[in-house]
Task: inverse folding
């Protein structure tokens, strides 16, 4: 036999508590020994009674000895509260000409690089406005090779031109536009000339000692070839190791959320 207790004040208090706690009603099932099935939301139990909140807001109590089983439906966590727009930080515009101090997090081998290649870096110093951090240190910076020039074997120097494409922090990515930054290796033209001349002279001396005048001519040719090999092997290709620091300047303002 079912006994219902439906006091307005009791039900109202329970509903208020459930609303504050963010609870949602579920179709639990109480199976009675008589075969009757009662659907509702399990409220609690003690050694004598099991209490169930019915769909109409009434609370039913069942003696423990009359119950065959209580079946529960899985509970879901209450949804997270929506963010309060009033508490969200206001967007801030970082002006053009702001300097970004950037540090590479991967090495760049200019001899193997190609135009359009992307490289990873981070912001080495925070961007601050009026004493407030707007872009934090370690924000991720995406760099792109605009132009790559590899040195020839006998002259010229490696050169790479980079720009910053984006800043990422706080779960957001911001597209940016910056001035180009160029890195250039040391020129090898003059050094190559000295090496070739030195090699030719040394070959001529060795040839003269070994076989006189004709030997000197042969030695000069051999020495010249040797000098060219040394010069080719001595060309220093430009490499920017990880932790290399570069400075980029914004050419357009960017609006971010701190």
Result:
């Amino acid at each position: 036999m079912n006994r219902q207790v439906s006091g307005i004040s009791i039900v109202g208090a329970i509903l208020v508590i459930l609303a504050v706690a963010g609870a949602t009603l579920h179709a639990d099932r109480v199976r009675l020994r008589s075969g009757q099935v009662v659907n509702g939301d399990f409220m609690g139990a003690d050694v004598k009674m099991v209490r169930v909140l019915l769909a109409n807001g009434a609370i039913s109590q069942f003696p423990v000895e009359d119950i065959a089983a209580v079946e529960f439906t899985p509970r879901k966590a209450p949804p997270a509260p929506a963010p309060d727009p009033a508490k969200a930080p206001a967007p801030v515009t970082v002006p053009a000409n702001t300097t970004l101090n950037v540090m590479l997090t991967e090495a760049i081998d200019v001899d193997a690089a190609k135009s359009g290649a992307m490289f990873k870096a981070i912001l080495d110093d925070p961007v601050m406005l009026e004493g407030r951090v707007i872009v934090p240190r370690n924000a991720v910076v995406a760099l792109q090779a605009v132009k790559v020039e590899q040195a020839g074997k006998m002259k010229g120097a490696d050169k790479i031109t980079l720009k910053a494409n984006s800043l990422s922090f706080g779960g957001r990515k911001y597209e940016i536009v910056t001035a180009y930054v160029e890195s250039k290796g040391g020129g090898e033209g003059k050094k190559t000339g000295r090496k070739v001349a030195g090699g030719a002279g040394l070959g001529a001396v060795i040839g003269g000692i070994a076989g006189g005048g004709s030997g000197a001519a042969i030695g000069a040719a051999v020495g010249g070839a040797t000098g060219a090999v040394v010069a080719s092997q001595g060309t220093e290709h430009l490499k920017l190791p990880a932790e290399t620091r570069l400075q980029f300047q914004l050419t357009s303002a960017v609006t971010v959320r701190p």
Remarks:
- The chain has two helices and 19 strands.
- The longest helix spans residues 189-234.
- The chain has a mean pLDDT of 75.
- The CA atoms of residues 113 and 148 lie 7 Å apart.
